[in-house]
Amino acid sequence: MAILKIARMGHPVLARPADSVPDPTAPEIRQLIADMVDTMVDAPGQGLAAPQVHVPLRVVVFLTPDEGDGQRELVTLVNPSWRPLGEEQDLAWEGCLSVPGLRGLVPRYTRIAYEGDLPDGRRLQREVQGWHARVAQHELDHLDGILYPQRMTDLKDLVFESELRHRASLQPQEQED
Questions:
Q1: How far is it, in rounded angstroms, from Cα 104 to Cα 14?
Q2: What is the CB neighbour count within 10 angstroms for residue 121?
Q3: Catalytic positions
Q4: Spatial distance between the Cα atoms of 163 and 111, rounded to a whole number of angstroms
Q5: How many CB atoms lie within 10 A of CB 158?
Q6: 26 Cβ neighbours under 8 A, 6+ residues apart
Q7: Neighbouring residues of 12: CB distance < 8 A, sequence distance ≥ 6
Q8: How far apart are CA 58 and CA 17, in angstroms?
C-alpha cells in the first residue's frame, strides 16, 4: 500500500469529469482503492475520490458516520451515481483534503439514493439520509469535477478553519473529506 499525493484546488484533475472504469474488479483498481484508503486514513479524512489523488477515474472511498453504536463502514464504489430523494436540503460545514485549511457552509440534499460497483463485482444500492447522504454527495461531486465551494450559495460562509470558532452559532456539523 502507498500514501498518495493529494491534488489541491486549482489542479486540472479536480476540475474535469472522471472517466468510467471498464473493469471494476481489475487488480489495478483494487490496488488504487487500497492506496486511497491508506491515504484517507493518513490524511486524515472521511472520504477520498480518485481524482483527488491525481487519478481521473470514477472511484470513491468513504466512511459512513457512526450511528451511535461506534461502528463505521468503509464504502468503496466504482462508477457510482446518485439522485436526490425529495427536495429537502440542509446546510452544514464541510472541509476537503483538496481545499486544506478552509471550511464552507454547503447545502446538500438530506436524502439520496446511490449505487455503484464494488471491487468484487457485486453492485451496491442504498437509500441514505443525514450525514451519510452528505458525505456521499461530497465524494461523488469530485467525480464530476465539483468541489464544495462550487456548491456554496454565499462565499461569506467560506472561512479558514482557525476562524470557524467565531461562527459557533452556525456549526451544525463538520466533515473533512
A1: 18
A2: 10
A3: 139
A4: 30
A5: 15
A6: none
A7: none
A8: 9
Q: What is the pLDDT of residue 1?
A: 72
> Who's near 171: CB < 8 A, 6+ residues apart?
93, 164
Place of cell 450511528: 67
What residues pair up with 78 in beta bridges, in sequence order?
59, 117
Those residues whose C-beta lies under 8 Å from the C-beta of residue 17, and which sit 6 or more positions away, are 143, 144, 145
- What cell does 54 get? 491525481
Q: Whole-angstrom Cα distance, residue 93 to residue 100? A: 14
Q: Tens place of pLDDT for every residue, the chain, 177 residues?
A: 799 999 999 999 999 999 999 999 999 999 999 999 999 999 999 999 999 999 999 999 999 988 778 889 999 999 999 999 999 999 999 999 999 999 999 999 999 999 999 999 999 999 999 999 999 999 999 999 999 999 999 999 999 998 888 775 554 555 556
For residue 68, what pLDDT is reported?
78
| Category of 10 on φ-ψ map: left (φ > 0), alpha (ψ -120 to 50) or beta | left
- Alpha-carbon gap, residue 2 to 22, rounded angstroms: 23
Question: Which residues on adjacent β-strands are paired with residue 74?
Answer: 63
